[in-house]
Design a protein that fits this description.
- β3 and β4 form a beta hairpin.
- The chain is mainly α.
- Helices cover 45% and strands 6% of the residues.
- It is globular and about 60 Å long.
């Protein structure tokens, strides 16, 4: 289940519990990724935004309706009316498998990039940057002045360089997948094959899976091709606070599609889609790098058998790598196999 699909489930649950005169899609509704196991997978303030006289009672009714969904493991009401949501592990892993296969990304096709008109005017003195650094730097900078300040940073092949971190994380993911292939582990990009009850994800694995689905949604919204019928999501990576459903390029009269020099999301200021992409790529890159550095067992030792956990972690590596590659391509930047 993607965050966008969870939004739909929440909205339908609200409709089923509210009186006809009440608004099921209020402004300021937020779906936020939980920071740890205790916080759940996702948290929502939907019951508090409905304006009912008893938000906690409303939250309990919505929680009961949401918990009946087969992809939801549990829903807990906390505080005055917040929802703490935990997904079924097979559903979460299955969604990552779909992302690894290229779904839920809103990818407009090979060679397409986000609108270049959203980038700041290039200041003088950028000839020292290669094409990748120039494109990435202009995408993440709000102004030409900010881009000029980042020139020296973008020239270095060091962890301080945000582009280097993202490209290095992609190369790390590809290396992990090559190791898996050499060990005979097949990465299955098929949701059905991951809907088995015997796979248990460690907390770090689960957090990476959630970041992958979150990042995929950001890319889809940036290109204006997010799944229809969904409300915006507050991303822990971008920190944006949406006020209501944003029309996509095909739905809004003034919106245009990615790659045409027009804004895919009419609810955004110029350049915001580009910056949301760089922000979520850097967040996912940091998560993948930390996850791999913690020596997650991607492949078994010589005297051990391949288990469902090894296969699941390969799916996580494939999902993260696919998101990073897609995001870099949308910015017109290369995704190296090796660094």
């Amino acid at each position: 289940m993607t965050p966008e699909q969870l939004h739909v489930v929440l909205a339908e649950a609200a409709l089923s519990t509210l009186r006809p005169a009440e608004d099921p899609a209020p402004t300021g509704t937020v779906l936020r990724r939980g920071g740890d196991v205790a916080a759940g997978d996702w948290q929502s303030n939907l019951p508090l935004r409905l304006g009912t006289r008893e938000p906690q009672s409303t939250a309990e009714s919505i929680a009961e309706a949401v918990a009946s969904h087969p992809d939801i493991a549990s829903v807990t009401v906390t505080g005055p009316g917040f929802l703490r949501i935990v997904l079924e592990t097979p559903a979460l892993l299955g969604t990552v498998a779909q992302v690894a296969a290229g779904r839920h990304l809103g990818d407009p096709g090979p060679g397409a990039t986000l609108a270049s008109s959203d980038r700041p005017t290039e200041p003088d003195g950028l000839g020292v940057l290669d094409a990748d650094a120039l494109r990435y730097g202009s995408a993440r900078s709000r102004t030409a002045t900010a881009l000029a300040r980042d020139v020296e940073l973008l020239r270095t092949a060091a962890p301080a360089n945000p582009l280097h971190r993202v490209q290095h994380a992609h190369a790390t993911g590809r290396r992990l997948l090559r190791r898996a292939a050499a060990a005979g582990i097949r990465v299955v990009a098929d949701e059905a094959e991951h809907r088995t009850p015997d796979v248990t994800l460690a907390p770090a694995d689960r957090q990476l899976a959630l970041r992958i689905t979150e990042a995929a949604g950001v890319l889809a919204r940036a290109t204006g091709s997010a799944e229809t019928g969904t409300a915006p999501i507050t991303s822990a990576a971008t920190g944006s606070q949406p006020d209501g459903p944003q029309p996509t390029g095909r739905q809004a009269g003034t919106g245009r599609q990615a790659g045409t020099g027009r804004h895919a999301d009419t609810g955004r200021r110029p350049g915001e889609s580009l910056r949301s992409v760089t922000a979520v790529l850097e967040d996912l890159a940091a998560a993948l790098t930390a996850w791999s550095a913690a020596e997650r067992a991607i492949v078994p030792t010589l005297d051990a058998d391949i288990t469902a956990v090894h296969a699941a972690r390969c799916v996580l590596a494939a999902g993260a790598t696919t998101v990073l590659a897609t995001g870099l391509r949308l910015l017109g930047v290369t995704a190296p196999e090796r660094i």
